[in-house]
Design a protein that fits this description.
By secondary structure, this protein is an all-beta fold. The chain contains no helices and 14 strands. The protein has one domain. It is 0% helix and 30% strand. A 7-stranded mixed β-sheet has the order 2-5-9-13-12-11-10, with no helix packed on it. It has a 3-stranded antiparallel β-sheet with strand order 6-8-7, with no helix packed on it. The protein has a two-stranded antiparallel ribbon with strand order 1-14. The protein is globular.
Length: 164
């Protein structure tokens, strides 16, 4: 079991987590109301994390071959821009993917460029979660039409053994 800490202030950011070998297939919105919000089922169960080798989030660049793009979801790997052009994430690789509720102390971090959705955070803009010290550490995806997950930025966090 491990805990992720802020790389700036060393505050523990997550509950104790156990690594799973890969990010599971992402769920699509199933129409369910969860705590008054419409959410897709979480990508990972509480208490688990995985390392995502694929790029996630900003920046996005035009796809070299749009026909080769995997199924789209808001943070990547492929989405369409406002002109309908297929773009792919060229963001950081090896983000730490976990259940958003496993990092309850994170605070929202928004900028004028942060897109908002009708039900939650889209995750396709600038990182939208920060440590209470103010250091930007990740990107939550909680919009109704995309996956429900949190991506911690690999350079913004450090891994430490848990107490168990």
């Amino acid at each position: 079991m491990v805990v992720f800490h802020c790389a700036v202030c060393d505050r523990a950011l997550t509950a104790e987590l156990e690594r799973v070998p890969a990010v599971p297939a992402r769920h699509r919105f199933d129409g369910a109301l969860v705590d008054g919000r419409r959410l897709a089922p979480p990508t990972l169960p509480r208490g688990a994390y995985a390392i995502d080798p694929e790029p996630h989030g900003l920046p996005f660049v035009p796809a070299e071959n749009p026909d080769d793009c995997p199924a789209a979801y808001p943070g990547g790997p492929c989405i369409s821009d406002s002109n309908g052009t297929i773009i792919v994430s060229a963001g950081p690789r090896n983000t730490v993917v976990l259940h958003p509720e496993d990092a309850p102390g994170l605070i929202p971090h928004t900028t004028p460029e942060t897109p908002s959705g009708c039900c939650g955070a889209r995750g396709d803009g600038p990182p939208n979660r920060a440590c209470p010290c103010g250091s930007v550490v990740g990107n939550e995806m909680s919009e109704c039409y995309g996956p429900y997950e949190l991506h911690l930025l690999p350079d913004a966090v450090r891994l430490a053994p848990g107490d168990a």
